Amino acid sequence: MKTTYYGQSTILIETEGKKLLFDPFITPNPAAKDVNIDALKPDYILVSHGHGDHVADLVAVQKSSGAKVICIAEIADWLNKQGIDNVHGMNIGGAFNFDFGRVKMVNAVHSSTLPDGSPGGNPAGFVLHTGGKKIYFAGDTALTYDMKLLEDENLDWAFLPIGDNYTMGIDDAIKATSFINCKNVIGIHYDTFPVITIDKAEAIEKFTSAGVNIKLPAIGEVVAL
Fold first, then answer.
1. Would you say domain 2-224 falls under CATH 3.40.190.80?
2. What InterPro entries would the database entry show (predicted)?
């Protein structure tokens, strides 16, 4: 199993012969200018919430790939109104078995409005059971005590926002690793905008000192999970 980082919170996980794309925000990101979204061809697109820096390429990628979109019910309704019906709507606390594994939608503390002003429902994260691994994609979130509910999941990897200002920063993300009982982390949601720029060397030092294996991949970099 492997993941490829495409900037901001956009990742692609390849597992069980399927490609899972999370929060597609590529074409508006100058740092990802060399990424061809038409070449991604995911089988599934998982959407954590409705903000533009998570759904900017959602419709385009879905239409070019035919991928099934997994998202909260309100975003599913929004997609239906745009003629996209290959959608699986969910809600917080619910889980479903797909052909690549099981997905549970979990709480995130943030906000969610779609780019056209439509309500995006509640923000969410995902816990995936796939390929013999358990993976947590936190989405955009503050540190929340609800994360303690994941400590018995025996997570193998966690994708955590670390850019601060709009989400958790580095220190809160480190605290989150103890809540979720996971010491393998890939940082997301940082460096895309000036207000979420981080000192990568400082971040690595802090996570490492806390006993956490932290990865901050470059855009297009592949990490084995």
1. no
2. Metallo-B-lactamas (IPR001279), RibonucZ/Hydroxyglut_hydro (IPR036866), UPF0173 (IPR022877), UPF0173_UPF0282_UlaG_hydrolase (IPR050114)
Q: What three-state secondary structure class fits 73?
A: helix
| Beta strands, E only, the chain | 2-5, 11-15, 18-22, 44-46, 68-72, 87-90, 95-98, 101-107, 124-130, 133-137, 157-161, 184-188, 213-215, 222-224
Cα(23)–Cα(86) distance, integer angstroms: 17
Three-class DSSP category at 213: strand
Contact 9, 48 (CB under 8 A): yes
**What is the C-alpha to C-alpha distance for residues 34 and 96, in angstroms, rounded to an integer?**
35
| HSE toward the beta carbon, residue 70, CA cutoff 13 A | 28
Q: Where are the domains of the chain?
A: 2-224
The CA distance from 105 to 91, in Å, is: 6
Residue 8 tokens, joined: 């901001």
Q: What is the amino acid identity at position 93? A: G
Kindly tell me the burial class for residue 40, based on how many C-beta atoms sit within 10 Å of its own C-beta (0-12, 13-18, 19 or more): buried
If the chain, 225 residues long, is cut into consecutive pieces of 10 residues, what is the mean pLDDT of each piece?
98 98 98 96 98 98 98 98 96 98 98 97 98 98 98 98 98 98 98 97 98 98 98
Q: Note the pLDDT of residue 38.
A: 96
Count the neighbouring beta carbons within 10 Å of the beta carbon of residue 63. Answer: 13
Cβ–Cβ < 8 Å for 107, 92: yes
Q: Specify the length of the chain in residues.
A: 225
For strands 95-98 and 2-5, give the pairing: unpaired
